[in-house]
Amino acid sequence: MVARLDSAGDVLITGPAVRAVASRHGPVVFLAGPRGTEAARLLPAVADVIEWQAPWVDFDSPELTSDHVESLVKQLRDVGPERMYINTSFHQSPLPLALIGRMAGVPWIGAISDDYPGTLLDLRHHAEPGVPEPERALSLVSAAGCALPSGDDGALRVDVASALPPDLDEITRMAPYVVFHPGAAVPARRPTVDRSAAMVQALTDAGYRVLVTGDHSERALTARVAGAAAVDLGGRTSLATLATVYARSRVVVVPNTGPAHLAAAVGTPVVSLFAPVVPASQWLPYGRNVIRLGDQTAPCRLTRARQCPVPGHPCLDGITDAEMLAAVDQYEGRTT
């Protein structure tokens, strides 16, 4: 069993580690939170997904009660994993989940932990600071003897459906396009609405056909950003169909959010609008064709701020149209 209890992007970056575990142990059961379940189902080598919301991870999680914990204990006992690999971000502790795993009788548990685990962990792994998150997760399972299969380069990867619903299929086959994804769960990590709309307008003025993507909760945002210039796909895709939309795209322009990792996982070039509130060395989309934009020396650097603390949001709104177009043009073979 592999566990990662937070967002879709966090789940996607565990993909190489999942494949390494599967190479040694066979198909993997993935324990995910509600924000990551759909992403877990896209990972190669995942045979089943258990969903459980961790009160120490999600802001909107239910109260931690004995019944809530017992529901996970029961599911773990039913599955009966021989091993549990707990993946976390560098600022999270694996020990609450390890405790529940012990209550369920999981005989071997491994995790990266700075905190003393007592008998909660059989493998207490220490990862090098600042490494990309996919490599951090892979280092954990490697320490337990799991290696990527021969020929696996360790890239992010998801299973991509070849078919789309008829309406999306027609839109994506009509003509080549680039994608602009304006949203992010953390407001400090995305450009303002007006700046995103201006970027989309600049792309269309330069002759690009633009599709604007977002989930159901972002429909108002995508409508404003797309305006009359672009095709608004807000609320019209699941994560699985979004993967196919991205796979057919020429370039994806996106802030630091789950869809950035999805674009990298389908192998599409990414122009990353990256706010420095978290380190790019760890969280930049993990792929060969990624161009990072955004002022990494802005005053918000490494603050982990959820709301931009700097007037004017200079790290992202300061990205010029010329910079953004030059990045997209580089992948399209254009010169500016």
TrEMBL record:
- List, alphabetically, the GO terms of the cellular component aspect: cytosol
Q: Name one GO biological process term.
A: lipopolysaccharide core region biosynthetic process
Q: Which UniProt keywords apply?
A: Glycosyltransferase, Transferase
Entry's Gene Ontology molecular function annotations? ADP-heptose-lipopolysaccharide heptosyltransferase activity
SUPFAM superfamilies per the record? Answer: UDP-Glycosyltransferase/glycogen phosphorylase
Q: Which PANTHER family match?
A: LIPOPOLYSACCHARIDE 1,2-N-ACETYLGLUCOSAMINETRANSFERASE-RELATED, TETRAACYLDISACCHARIDE 4'-KINASE-RELATED
Q: Give the protein's recorded name.
A: Glycosyl transferase
